[in-house]
């Protein structure tokens, strides 16, 4: 990669180098990152993220929150919106073009932060899709959210920075190629999902389980995001992760060979 301020006019035109942004879709209940994109901060990357999220879910439309980047609203409408075709009027002239409208179950709210001298001095929220009443009901039904917030993904950003040195601030470790950055991020997210227990996902054992020798009883069942999402039933080791045989993509659409990765059927 190369810093944005040091790009030549030709490199700016080709849009192959410079600053890269990591777009993340974060599930606050399971702490899972079901989709991510590394690229520029444009509408194209926003749409790619929503498309990847849609393809990794069961068709249910989640309750979305984000910062006030306008690309997200456009991408959500383009991916989840319903296409309406205006009826013919019978009058001469070109017929009206079709357009998309948000479905009733699409709920999206943004967090707006006002800064002065680099510090946040005011935080407000705004409902983009849905009604305030439905947003309030979605928050009441959520086991982890009580207000419109982006705290989950912001905390996850810190976690990923700690796992991926190439995302650290003011370090000399950086990717010179976009593909290298994506490969390193893929490994970091896999490690985060399957290997590292998440403190917010642990369950208290009742009663505690005895341990060998004179050790204190085990009071907590540790879980990873993949365990919370039902993707596996145990914490993986790095050997498990690196030796996992990922089946070809054409197999995923029929009968995934999950046995190779230790994932229960």
Describe the structure.
This protein has about 260 residues and is α+β, with helices and mostly antiparallel strands. Helices cover about 30% and strands about 20% of the residues. The protein is built from nine helices and nine strands. The strands form four sheets. Strands 3-6-7 form a three-stranded mixed beta sheet, covered by helices on one side. The protein has a two-stranded antiparallel ribbon with strand order 1-2. A hairpin with a 4-residue loop joins β1 and β2. α2 packs across α3. The protein is globular, with a radius of gyration of 22 Å.
Topology:
Blueprint: H1 9-14, E1 21-27, E2 32-39, H2 43-55, E3 63-67, H3 71-80, E4 82-84, E5 99-101, E6 107-116, E7 119-129, H4 132-141, H5 151-163, H6 178-194, E8 203-209, E9 218-221, H7 225-228, H8 238-242, H9 249-252
Parallel strand pairs: 3-6
Antiparallel strand pairs: 1-2, 4-5, 6-7, 8-9
Helix pairs in contact: 2-3
